Structures are given as structure tokens and as C-alpha cells.
Amino acid sequence: MKADPRETRLRERLETIRARSAKSSSWRSSTQYLSRLVNKGGFVPIKTRLSREDIAFLSGAREEVIAFAELGVRLLDLHRPQEAGGITSDPGSPIRRCRACMSRWPCPTFRAMAETLDQ
């Protein structure tokens, strides 16, 4: 079976973003120090050494984070529970299925998102 070119394009974009992110430096440990340097204008004057990978990551990070947040919201809109109907032994807790993939709730897509974002 031939791969869908849309899937191939999306997979390549996601892999590029993941690779670029992995190569860049984390600023997590620096943020506590930097937050104490905010001047009266609300800015932090920064002098640092950035690698090419850091610059490549920072140049697209804002747009990529917005796109991923939108993707996450759209996936949550698609993969949400609905009552499956039918007979259950516990009427107070009916069987639920995902309205998009019809898997039992929580579906694999929702579980993968929850596991990834709850880390």
C-alpha cells in the first residue's frame, strides 16, 4: 500500500521539529536566574552563546508551540467520550466509547496525549 503523501509530509514536519528541539539547549535551569534580572522596562538583557541549533529552534518555536497546542485541542475535540448504548450491569456507570475511533473510553489517542502531557 502506498503511503499517503499528506501523512508523509506531516510525519516529516513532526520529526524535523522533534530533532531540532532535541538538538537545542534547554533554558529551564536558566529561567530562575534570568527572571531575577528583569529590568524596569520588563526585559532581561541577555548575553549568551547560542549554537546554530539553538537559533534554528528559537526562530520557529513560538509558531510550532501554537500549532501543537491547536493540534492538541483539535484532537481532544475529536477524541472524547460518548455513551455506547446497550445494556450495562451498572446503570450509574454506562459503557463509553470514543466518538472518533469508537474504542472503549479512554481511547488510545486520549491515553497517549494524557501520558505525554502529564509528564
Q: What is the CA-CA span between the terminal residues?
A: 36 Å
Helix content, binned percent: 40-55%
Give the biggest beta sheet: 2 strands, antiparallel
Mean pLDDT: 86
- Structural category is mainly alpha
- Reading the helices and strands in chain order gives HHHEEH
- Total beta strands: 2
User: Given the structure, what is the number of helices?
Assistant: 4
Strand order of the largest sheet: 1-2
Radius of gyration: 21 Å
Q: What's the shape?
A: elongated
Strand percent estimate: 5-15%
> Spans of 5+ residues with little confidence (pLDDT < 50)?
none
Tell me about this structure.
There is one protein chain. By secondary structure, the chain is mostly helical. It has helices at 5-23, 28-35, 52-78, 108-117; strands at 81-83, 96-98. It has a two-stranded antiparallel ribbon. The longest helix has 27 residues, at 52-78. It is elongated, with a radius of gyration of 21 Å. The two termini are 36 Å apart. The mean pLDDT is 86.
